[in-house]
Amino acid sequence: MNRSRSLICIGMCFLLMVSSACAKRETFLPYTNPLPSPAFSLYNYGKEDIVDYEKYGEFQNVGTAQYKYVVKDQEGLANATGEGIYPNSTSFRWDPKYIEYKKQGLLKGNHWDFVHGRDLLANFYKWCSAPEPPGVRQFYIATILEEAGLIKHAIKAYYSIVIHFPYANGWTYWHTPWYIGPASLHRIRYLTRRYPELKMKLVDAKIIIKNGEDNNILNDQVVVWPGKIVHVENEDDVLPHKRKHGLKDIVEKKGGKNTQLVKYKDGSWQLLVDGKPYIIKGITYATTKIGQSPDDGTMRNWMFYDYNKNGLIDGPYDAWIDWNRNGKQDKDESAVGDLSLLKEMGANTLRIYRLPEEKLNKILLKDMYERFGIRFVMSDFLGMYTIGSGATWEEGTDYTNKKQQENMKRHVKELVEQFKDEPYVLFWLLGNENNYGVANNAKEKPDAYYKFVNEVAKMIKKIDPTRPVAICNGDVLFLDKLAKYCPDVDIVGMNAYRGNAGFGDIWEKVFVLAPDKAAMITEYGCPAYGKGLSVEAAEEGQAMYYLGCWEDILYNSADYDWGVGNSIGGFAFEWTDEWWKAYEPFKHNTETRWAGPFLDGFMYEEWLGITGQGDPEYSPFMRVVRKAYEYLRKAWMD
Is residue 141 scored above 60 in pLDDT? Predict the structure, then answer.
C-alpha cells in the first residue's frame, strides 16, 4: 500500500496566455482567486463554518508534547463539523447520492485508486470510510474537498487534523516521514490567503516536530499549539503585506562587495547585490539535444552547441517558439533565443554546474550578464553521482576518503579561482542533495559529509571572501547536522517538491535550527503531464504549481510579513524538457518515476520544463512555451 500519494495539485481554469517580446498579453490572474464553483454538493455541511472547539471539548497541555483535545460533546461536535470531518464519520452513509453510487458499484476497488480519480464525489465517499489511520484519512478527504472547490469544508477538514491528530504521520515514496499536522497548517494558511473573501484567518497555531530531521519517527517530540481559525472584518487582513528594513535594522553581514547577506533585528535575511535587495528569480538551465544522454556518453556541452553552424550558440540565441504547435517552424516563427525569453520572463539567475571534463563558456556567460541581466550561482556536485571524487559508481563517493576529498577540493578550487573575479557570479553552491546518498555515503555518514562541506566552504572563503557559500540539501533531511557542522555555510539551499502550495514548514525549520543562515529553494517544479489529463489541464496544473511555490518563496522573504522572512529566492526546475532521464533519449517517456504531490500523484521527469522541445527533428531549437512561463513572467515582472 503506497501512502506517499500526498497533495493533489489543484488547478483552476484560467485563460492561456502566451508571451514573447512580440506577443500579445492578457490580464494575469491575481495572487488571490474567486471562490470556485463546487464540483458537487454535500449532504451535510455542518452547522458551523468555523467550529468553536471550546464549546465541545477541552484543550489540555497546549504548547507541550503531551497536548490533546478531549471531546466532551461528540454529538454536538459532529453536528458542527459536518460530513466527512471527525467525529462525523457516518452521516455520508445516509446521503442518497452515496447510496446510489454504492448500488451502481462505483465505489469498488482500493481507496488509493480514488485519490486522483476524475469522479471527485466517488473519491470523497471512498475516503470517508477508507481503512487508514484517522489523520491520514482526514488529510485525503480534505484534499479531495479542496480539489472539488468546497474550500470552507476543506479548511474545516484540515483544521480537524490539527485539533485531533497533530501527531499523525505517513511515509513518502523515499521512506522519509511525512508529518500531516504541519502540512495541514500550511494548507489552511494557503487557502485562506488565496481566497481572502472567506475572511478566515488561522492565528497562534504551530506544530513543532523536534528530532524530525532524520528518518526515525520514534525519537520525535511533537509540540502543539492548535491556535484557532477566526473571522476577520476585511479581506486585507488575511493577505501578505510588504515591510521595509533600514540600515539601522541590520545586525549581521556576510559576504562582501559583490554579494552580501544581511540579517535584520527580526531574524529575517536578505540578499543584497550592489547594495540593493535581490531576490533570486531563478531557473535551472541545462538544455539537452533530444537523443543525447550522459548514460551513453553522447551528451555534449550546451554552452558550445552550434548545430546550424551560424556562429551562434543554439539554445541561448537561436531557439524559436512553435506558437501554433504544429510541429514545424513557420515563416513568422523566427529565432528569438532562450536568453531573450528569459529576460522577458524576468528571470535574473541561473544555476550552473561544472563537470570535470567540461569547460564553461566565459564569453557566453559574460554576454548573458551584460545584455540580458542574468547572474549565476556557480555550483559543484561535490561527489554527487561520484562527480569530481574519482570514485567509481559501484563504490560511490566516500566522504571519509582523504584522496577523494582532495580530488573534490581541487575541483572546487579550480572553479572558484577561475570565476572569482567575474561580476556575474552571485555566490557558490556545494552539492546537489548529496544527503540522499545516491552513489555516495552521505546518508550513512552524515557527520563526515557535513564536516567535509564546511572544510570546502572555508577553503572557498579564503580564495573569495566577497561572496557567500551555499549548500544544496535534499529537503530538510539531516538539517540538524548541517546546522551543527557547517558554520561556514551561509545559505541553506533545498531541493523540495512538496506540492502546489509551496514548502510547508521548511522555512521555519531553517529559522529554528539554523538561524545564522538564509534559506532558498534550489529546485522546485512539476511535470506538465498527468495520466488522463488533457494537455490544457496538465499545463494549467503545472502553471499553478509553479506559481504557488513562487508565492511561498516570495512571502517568506524579508519583504513580507506573512512568513518567516529567511527566504532569498529559488530556482524553478527546469527551463526545458530533457528527454534522456528515463534512459530512452529519443522518446518523450510518460512512465511514472516516483510518487509525490504532482498532477496525478506521480513524477514524470522528462516533462518538468517550463518550455517543451516539441518535434525531435528541430531539437535543440524548437520551444513550446507552456502556461507556467506566462504565470511566472507576470509574477516576476510585477
Answer: yes
pLDDT digits (tens, 9 = 90+) for 541-591: 999 999 999 999 999 999 999 999 999 999 999 999 999 999 999 999 999
Q: Pick from 157, 132, 159, 134: which is nearest to 145 by CA?
A: 157
Residue 581 lies in a domain: no
CA pair distance 475, 3, nearest whole angstrom: 19
Residue environment code for 6-39, b if the CB has 16+ CB neighbours within 10 A, otherwise e: bbbbbbeebeebebbeeeeeeebbebebeebeee
User: How far is it, in rounded angstroms, from Cα 599 to Cα 601?
Assistant: 6
DSSP states of 497-524 as a string? Answer: ---TT--TTHHHHHHHH-TTSEEEEEEE
Q: How far apart are alpha carbons 542 and 599 in whole angstroms?
A: 8
Return the SS3 of 379. strand
In angstroms, the CA 285 to CA 365 distance is: 12
Residue 530 CA to residue 601 CA, distance in Å, equals 8
Domain-located, residue 441 = no
Report which residue type is found at 334.
S
Q: Where does the pLDDT of residue 17 fall: very low under 50, low under 70, confident under 90, or very high at 90 and above?
A: very low
**3-class secondary structure, 606:** helix
Q: What is the pLDDT of residues 51-96, one digit of tens each?
A: 999 999 999 999 999 999 999 999 999 999 999 999 998 889 999 9
Spatial separation of the C-alpha atoms in residues 85 and 88, rounded to whole Å: 5
Instruction: Write the CB contacts of 83 (distance below 8 Å, at least 6 apart in sequence).
Output: 42, 43, 44, 45, 46, 91, 92, 95, 128, 153
Whether residue 36 has a cis bond before it, omega within 30° of 0 = no
Please check whether residue 271 is in contact with residue 261, taking contact to mean a CB–CB distance below 8 angstroms.
yes
Query: What beta strand segments (E) does 61-180 contain?
Result: 68-71, 169-171, 177-179
Express each pLDDT in 234-281 by its tens digit: 999 999 999 989 889 999 999 988 899 999 999 999 999 999 999 999
Structurally, the chain folds into a number of domains equal to 1
Find the domain containing 98 and state its range: 53-238
pLDDT recorded at residue 215: 86
Per the domain annotation, does 272 fall within a domain?
no
Q: Is residue 174 part of a domain?
A: yes
Chain position carrying cell 527551463? 575
CA distance 227 to 440: 43
Q: Please tell me the predicted confidence (pLDDT) of residue 31.
A: 62
User: Helix (H, G, I), strand (E, B), or coil: what is residue 230?
Assistant: strand
Burial class (CB within 10 angstroms; exposed 0-12, middle 13-18, buried 19+) of 422: middle
Residue 425 has pLDDT above 60, yes or no: yes
Reported as half-sphere exposure (CB side, CA atoms, 13 A), residue 357 has a value of 7
Alpha-carbon torsion 48, 52, 57, 60, what sign?
A: positive
| pLDDT tens-digit readout, 319-372 | 999 999 999 999 999 999 999 999 999 999 999 998 877 899 999 999 999 999
pTM given for the model: 0.92
Query: Which runs of E-coded beta strand occur in 367-501?
Result: 375-380, 425-430, 469-474, 491-495
169, 179 Cβ separation under 8 angstroms: yes
Q: Which of 494, 472, 492 is nearest to 484 (CA)?
A: 492
